[in-house]
Amino acid sequence: MAHQDPLIHQDIDAYIRQHQNKSLLRFITCGSVDDGKSTLIGRLLYDSKMLFEDQLQALEADSRKVGTQGDGLDFALLVDGLAAEREQGITIDVAYRYFSTATRQFIVADTPGHEQYTRNMVTGASTADAAIVLVDARKGLLTQTRRHTYLLSLMGIRHVVLAVNKMDLVGHDPAVFDAIARDYASLAGRLGIPDIAAIPVSGLRGDNILDRSAHMPWYAGPTLMAWLEAVKVEQHALVAPARFPVQWVNRPHQDFRGYAGTLASGTLQVGERVRVQPSGRETTLAAIHTHNGAQASAIERAIAGQAVTLLLADEVDAARGDMIVPAQSPACVANQFLAHLVWMNDEPLFPGRHYLLQCGTQSVPATVTRIKHEVNMDSLDERAADKLTLNAVAQVNMSIERPLVFDPYLQNRQAGAFIMVDRLSFQTVGAGMITHELRRATNIQPQHFVIGKAERAAMNGQTPRVLWFTGLSGSGKSTIANQLEKTLFARGLRTYVLDGDNMRHGLNKDLGFTEQDRIENIRRAAEVAKLMMDAGLIVITTFISPFRADREAARALFKPGEFLEVFIDTPLAVCEDRDPKGLYRKARTGQVRNFTGIDSPYEPPLNAELVIDGSEGLDASACAQRILDHLLDRPQDGARGTSKEEPA
């Protein structure tokens, strides 16, 4: 490596000491596709002499083989490592690169410009302190430029340099640069980004990258490298209040109980008064342990970024997902909050659908209850939306099953960011930044009564539960449910059939058959079924309930064993041949839209407790008997306390 610092040749120990004391700047490059981000980063690495000889040789060979610069070096190949990136000449994944100068160390995230990879840009920006936004001097500000800048503002990045690239292709015209810089300053002003600099550059030619360009004598500002070396970045993680997410309880023997994790922000001192949230219990920090090689050692003070184990003075219950904070500066605790959400999934988000929300070590079921507005990336205006599609950015109200411990994102990035995860595939589908808690949520508390589900069940002499019938229209759900209720009723059991059509004549008559309405239909049905089960009844529901996510959300309302999914597995052809209500015929002729099985999907259960063959020759009595036999085979479900003669 031909490094520019002579110390590396003269005094390696002095160089290492100097290197250890350098500050670290994490920054991101973003902008629209083909604006030259990868080329710019490659040029920075090349000009700062941070390439090994074999890397230079590989760059020369790759440039001859797949480069786009003729006989010249294609610097983009230094960061575009995927085969697809080299074939298409675009960035797809986030590429992280390290380099340093005599005054500072850098970690740069080169992010893709294509709209479909906006999720990757969000990933890169999540840990960045500053940003380089590239703009092609020939094109000016584009939609993706606005989108990325808006996301930078949401994610709390306050230091941005606008690199007006490819100035060589516009004859180094200062008027072109000035016009783009004015447009961007106006955009940044609307978004509240306080620190903006604009630099005319040519990433390919190296103009104003490391050295001042002779082609643009009219520009008197810093070079890009000079800006990167000089920008002052606040150490938010150090100045923010201490936030220690408990990752796991460290219990090597009976005389030691510690809480292990990484201090996300702030500092903690032995002897400090701390609080465990969300429980609110307070105690004193008795000791802090860390590892020094193979040996554990005690320290008096922990700072943000350190992996430590905390020992508390009192026996306070804490577990993974709890947060240990200073008693005098606690975090927010709420089960509803306002957030900005970036949707990252091809499948749209509809209000009411359930996901997992992960914030630090906390993982809780969550749902978007309302989309307040979506942001139009062309104008940055707010617009109404009933769903969020891939790369949409919106402000939403969120509700979670249990109280979440957090800080508003702009006050503490480490404690205010979250991701949303699909409950079935465990794929990350969204990323969000919490704005503030919804205080109305703290005014509503569950009301507990002396007479509860157990007392009502005992009076009824049965164990209440929900039998959730699902299947296509015409599969036989209502017919089998009717026969099953007759059988249970004859045994003296208290039941109720909650039928989809009947609910749409009353409670759900305001709902149509769009995907959003179907989600809300099942949500309401599940809540009603839960109330009925709390009343001590055996509830049989007959809903198509086509989406697995919604059925799993319904299941999540109940304790294990209370919810049994019964799949009436009848082929579409059989259902359509029966067509008891004439709906398939209307759907085929376009008179009925969004009909399950025709122009709206049905997702069969993957792990239903019971699958009933509802094909030709359906015998409702035999099907009902099979469900009854299944119940009788569950010892924990016997009615009237001990007898297996009565299901519950």
Q: How would you describe what is shown here?
A:
It is built from 19 helices and 28 strands. The radius of gyration is 31 Å and the shape is globular. It folds into four domains: 7-234, Rossmann fold, CATH 3.40.50; 238-326, Elongation Factor Tu (Ef-tu), domain 3, CATH 2.40.30.10; 332-441, Elongation Factor Tu (Ef-tu), domain 3; 453-637, P-loop containing nucleotide triphosphate hydrolases (Rossmann fold, 3-Layer(aba) Sandwich), CATH 3.40.50.300. The strands form five sheets. Strands 7, 8, 9, 11, 12, 13, 15 and 16 form an eight-stranded antiparallel beta sheet that branches. It is α/β, with parallel strands linked by helices. β18 and β19 form a beta hairpin.
